[in-house]
């Protein structure tokens, strides 16, 4: 339970499904807030509206739905997003500019606004501090499990709590997949401090994961702080207590990000691609991300095939500078490539046994410098194709 926050979820039938699909996050007082949104040029109506409203630094409620993304819906979609916010504000008795809306689901369909008119008052009347798990289920689409994380950090001897929920399983390569994340904390903290903290935490977590290389039109990460904890106000980002809070936030985001990858559509394995020996951090990330997004590499992971040649091919088109004859590759602790060549058939067989595990790390040394990067991905299975072949039906 996060002091000051209440939650609710209902079955609205927005796409004719009998499931929780509309949720509300409500803070009893205006909360300091920050947000990070998709960098995709095609942006959903709730993202456009959210950017405008989060700029004020204060938010009191978030209305979120699954089933329909309200993306590529033109002026009608933007008006519908604004009307959803207006109805939420009226039901809660708060200022309209303090309401954000967020959506996930099928792109291109318009809302049936009667669902919102009917259900928003129900949400407002049913909020409770123990219903975060309901909102978590309401934001799921192809997710197979809800994703939630909590942290408690001591600031000046006072407990400060954080809780976060996230959804995402496909269309995942956030670049701020369909990814949504909502974080609540009772910390006393200025929104000016929250902005760089959230941006940094997202960069080290959600921006380091990929399921299928697709950046969604709706990617959103929001943090709200009620300020009802008894810690001294955090208003300097370099203070020792601000650093403690920031570490807790980064840890929470990383846990949620890894849960998204582990639940990738059809995924059976969680894989860390760890690149070292790059000329600079940008090239390290390019190399790691290219390997992590390679369909050939990911299908090899699914089949437990230690096909290191596919990794070499991905590295070669990544844009990173290196000499192929200096590459070293290991699966887990088993090295399979040295000086750009296979060590032995026995090493390849041992590496295949590593790939049969549910979680493992692929270590790649480019031999070109001292910088590194980790990207988190999953395998690509037959089920990924099945899920996405008939997603809309």
What would your notes on this structure say?
The model has no long low-confidence stretch (mean pLDDT 91). The protein has eleven helices and 14 strands. It is globular. The protein is of the alpha+beta class. Strands 1, 2, 3, 4, 5, 6, 7 and 8 form an eight-stranded mixed sheet that branches. Strands 12-11-10-13-9-14 form a six-stranded mixed sheet. It has helices spanning 45-54, 74-92, 113-125, 132-138, 191-204, 240-262, 281-293, 295-302, 308-316, 345-355, 382-389, and strands spanning 5-10, 22-37, 58-68, 99-106, 147-155, 158-167, 180-185, 220-225, 270-278, 328-331, 334-338, 341-342, 359-365, 371-378.
Predict the CATH topology of the largest domain. Answer: L-amino peptidase D-ALA esterase/amidase
Work out the oligomeric state of the chains in this entry: single chain
Beta-strand percentage range: 25-35%
Total strand segments: 14
Report helical residue fraction.
25-40%
Radius of gyration from the alpha-carbon trace, in angstroms: 22 Å
In the CATH hierarchy, what is the superfamily of the largest domain?
A: L-amino peptidase D-ALA esterase/amidase
Distance from first to last alpha carbon: 37 Å
Secondary structure class reads alpha+beta
Please outline the major beta sheet: 8 strands, mixed
Question: Can you tell me the number of structural domains?
Answer: 2
Poorly predicted ranges (pLDDT <50, ≥5 residues)? none
Shape: globular
CATH architecture of the largest domain: 4-Layer Sandwich
The CATH class designation of the largest domain is Alpha Beta
What is the N-to-C succession of helices and strands?
Answer: EEHEHEHHEEEHEHEHHHEEEHEEH
């Amino acid at each position: 339970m996060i002091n000051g926050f209440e939650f609710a979820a209902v079955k609205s039938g927005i796409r004719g499904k009998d499931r929780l699909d509309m949720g509300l996050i409500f803070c009893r007082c205006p909360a300091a807030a920050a947000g990070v949104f998709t960098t995709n040029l095609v942006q959903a109506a709730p993202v456009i509206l959210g950017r405008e409203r989060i700029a004020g630094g204060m938010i009191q409620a978030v209305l979120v739905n699954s089933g329909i993304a309200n993306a590529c819906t033109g002026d009608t979609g933007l008006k519908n997003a604004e009307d959803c916010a207006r109805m939420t504000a009226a039901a809660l008795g708060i200022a309209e500019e303090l309401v954000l809306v967020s959506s996930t689901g099928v792109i291109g369909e318009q809302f049936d606004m009667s669902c919102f008119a009917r259900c928003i008052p129900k949400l407002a009347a049913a909020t409770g501090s123990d219903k975060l798990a309901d909102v978590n289920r309401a934001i799921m689409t192809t997710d197979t499990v809800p994703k939630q994380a909590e942290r408690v950090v001591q600031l000046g001897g006072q407990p400060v709590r954080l809780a976060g929920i996230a959804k995402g399983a496909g269309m995942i390569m956030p670049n701020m997949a369909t990814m949504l994340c909502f974080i609540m904390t009772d910390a006393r903290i200025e929104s000016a401090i929250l902005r760089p903290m959230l941006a940094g935490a997202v960069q080290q977590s959600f921006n380091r994961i990929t399921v299928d290389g697709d950046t969604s039109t709706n990617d959103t990460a929001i943090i709200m702080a009620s300020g009802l904890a008894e810690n001294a106000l955090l208003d300097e980002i370099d203070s020792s207590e601000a650093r403690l809070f920031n570490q807790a936030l980064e840890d929470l985001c990383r846990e949620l990000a890894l849960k998204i990858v582990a639940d990738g559509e059809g995924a059976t394995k969680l894989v860390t691609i760890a690149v070292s020996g790059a000329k600079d951090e940008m090239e390290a990330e390019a190399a790691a991300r290219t390997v992590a997004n390679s369909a050939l590499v990911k299908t090899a992971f699914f089949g437990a095939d230690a096909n290191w040649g596919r990794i070499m091919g991905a590295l070669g088109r990544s844009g990173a500078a290196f000499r192929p004859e200096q590459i070293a590759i290991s699966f887990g602790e088993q090295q399979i490539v040295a000086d750009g060549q296979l060590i032995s058939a026995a090493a390849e067989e041992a590496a295949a046994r590593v790939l049969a595990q549910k979680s493992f790390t692929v270590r790649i040394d480019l031999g070109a410098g001292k910088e590194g990067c980790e990207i988190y991905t999953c395998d690509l299975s037959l089920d990924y194709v099945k899920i996405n072949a008939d997603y809309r039906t």
